[in-house]
Amino acid sequence: MSELNELYQQLILEHNKSPRNFKELEHFTNDADGYNPLCGDHYHIWLKLDGDIISDIGFKGSGCAISKSSASMMTAAVKGTTIANAKELFEKFHSVIMTKIGDEIPEEKIEELGSLGALAGVREFPARIKCASLAWHALIAALINPKQTVSTEQ
Predict the structure, then answer these.
(1) 54-to-14, 30, 37, 41 alpha-carbon distances in Å
(2) Contact 118, 1 (CB under 8 A)
(3) Mean pLDDT of 55-76
(4) Is the pLDDT of residue 89 over 90?
(5) How far is CA 54 from the centre of its chain?
(6) Which CATH number fits domain 2-151: 3.40.50.300, 3.90.1010.10, 3.10.20.310, 3.10.620.30?
(7) Is the dihedral of CA 142, 145, 148, 149 positive or negative?
(8) 2-6, 63-67, 69-73, 83-87: which range is least confident on average?
(9) DSSP-assigned beta bridge partners for residue 30
(10) Do 48 and 108 touch, CB atoms closer than 8 A?
(11) What confidence category does residue 145 fall into, taking pLDDT thresholds of 50, 70 and 90?
């Protein structure tokens, strides 16, 4: 298991160092801000929707390695997918990172997340759960009510 944890840590560090889709979209249909006042993480998410497909996505801002990696992995996972699939992936991701410490997470739940499963260990550090979920909440806000700001403290 330690080899797997090391691989996951390397993946998180790689996404922090070279985030995917770290860009502002010039032509977008939806956007939202996400802010964590406890640690100062702040990201803006831009989406270009073509019907119900997320044809492009970008994010900018600053935050810790967990929040930036999570935003990067999230954008890579939802780009090109449907709004419904993005919402479903959010629910799966959120349920994994919100699993109580000590409760077992079925391996298939983590496998369903693909590379996002690397962030499952965040649940062991409750203060970091908000870091990992910040960009996700901004994504959902952009899909449901564009132009809003979501906070981890609301």
Answers:
(1) 24, 10, 28, 24
(2) no
(3) 97
(4) yes
(5) 15
(6) 3.90.1010.10
(7) negative
(8) 2-6
(9) 47
(10) no
(11) confident
What phi and psi values does residue 103 have, to the nearest 5 degrees? -80, 140
Angstrom distance (rounded) from CA 46 to CA 132? 18
* Residue 113 to residue 44: CA distance in whole angstroms: 23
Enumerate the domain spans of the chain. Answer: 2-151
Residue carrying the six token digits 């499952």: 120
Q: What is the pLDDT of residue 16?
A: 95
Q: Are 131 and 70 in contact (CB under 8 A)?
A: yes
- The yes-or-no verdict on residue 30 having pLDDT over 60 is yes
Q: What phi and psi values does residue 149 have, to the nearest 5 degrees?
A: -110, 130
Q: For CA atoms 115, 40, 153, 146, give the dihedral sign.
A: negative
pLDDT at 4 over 90: no
Query: What value does the mean pLDDT take over residues 44-66?
Result: 97
Predicted TM-score (pTM) of the model is 0.92
Distance CA(111)–CA(91), nearest Å, equals 14
Cβ neighbour number for residue 149 with a 10 Å cutoff: 13
